[in-house]
Amino acid sequence: MSEGWIPVTERLPKPDEYVNDFPKYYLVQDEFGDMVVARYTHSEYWQQICCLKPYPDEIIAWRELPEQYKPPKQNLAFADKSGLEYADQPTLQSAT
Known about the structure:
Elements: E1 6-7, E2 18-19, E3 22-23, E4 26-30, E5 35-40, E6 46-48, E7 59-64
């Protein structure tokens, strides 16, 4: 089995699970290899995050969503206006 993926033939998540008053979503893969974010409902179907109707294709596996990306803290002493950081402080070269 691929790391983190759970085949639906093995088990399903709890239906209509909530986290902090929001529906709990999962990354799911359908029979064609497409992946979407969806939740599992009490009606025993997967509901895609963008739609209020059942996902049309057969879901074969699911997994928890990954942790949210957290960008590294910027060293403001060396950041330019674009937000890019430099290993060393940038220096201007003369046009001679």
